[in-house]
Specification:
41% of the residues lie in helices and 38% in strands. By secondary structure, it is α+β, with helices and mostly antiparallel strands. It is elongated, with a radius of gyration of 40 Å.
């Protein structure tokens, strides 16, 4: 065997040896990788089997003392003569507005003005009248003076009080406060379930805000437009403003 042939055989042997080593390492690494993956999968499956997912519905409510009020009232006039009905209504509404402008009120606005015929049926006779309705609204933060203001409005001819709406100055802040209460209740309920089910921890996976509702206290009153020598306060009871917040959440216990 000459020297060139010997070198060639040595070169071939080195190539074969390298291939065997590489294949061996690849095989061993593959086995190791699959084994590690299997261990992770087993741990994940075990953790999943020991986990519990619960759905919670939470509701929080709170009553707030009113800080402002919106009042809607007006003057209604009737007469068989259209011009007489309109004149009577205009005169009383002018006096009413002049009185209200002297009070500490805000946003005095016209809500509705209507003129329409009304047919009164009596036996075979039909008597037609004309009705004029003029409604206004105003807001006030002086709740203590509201009964007297309504009494003065009566003396000026107001005979239709359609709504008293108690409100808050900053509803957004109040809604956020009740939302925080709902979230606190959610966490308390999750802790309770975690402890009772013997779990170590809980995780809020999803949370959905169902609704944030403000229930403004509204009331209506029948008003007697009989003229009086002086204004008599109209007794009204301030109503609280209720805010309700509901939410739902998915909780993971493990």
């Amino acid at each position: 065997m000459n020297r060139g042939t010997g070198m060639f055989l040595v070169f071939i042997a080195l190539i074969l040896l390298t291939a065997v080593i590489v294949n061996g390492l690849y095989f061993d690494n593959s086995v190791f990788t699959r084994s590690k993956t299997d261990e992770i999968s087993d741990a994940a499956l075990k953790e999943k089997a020991e986990s519990v997912v619960v759905n919670l519905n939470i509701r929080a409510e709170k009553d707030f003392e009113p800080e402002a009020v919106e009042v809607k009232l007006g003057v209604e006039s009737r007469d068989v003569n259209l011009q007489s009905a309109v004149s009577d209504n205009n005169e009383k509404m002018t006096s009413l507005l002049e009185m209200l402008e002297k009070e500490t009120l805000t946003e005095i606005e016209t809500e509705d003005y209507r003129v329409y015929p009304v047919n009164n049926y009596s036996n075979d006779n039909i008597e037609r009248e004309y009705q004029v309705i003029n409604r206004i609204s105003f807001k006030s933060e002086n709740l203590e003076e509201l009964p007297l203001i309504l009494g003065k409005a009566l003396n000026q001819g107001a005979n239709n009080l359609s709504q008293i709406n108690y409100q808050l100055k900053n509803e957004e802040s109040a809604v956020n406060e009740v939302t925080a209460l709902a979230l606190d209740k959610l966490n308390q309920k999750a802790v309770f379930l975690r402890d009772k089910l013997g779990k170590k921890e809980y995780q809020i996976k999803t949370i959905n805000l169902g609704g944030q509702n403000v229930y403004r206290a509204e009331k209506t009153l029948n008003m007697d437009s009989t003229s009086r020598d002086e204004a008599v306060p109209v007794p009204v009871k301030g109503e609280k403003v209720k805010i309700s917040v509901s939410l739902s959440a998915e909780i993971l216990l493990r």
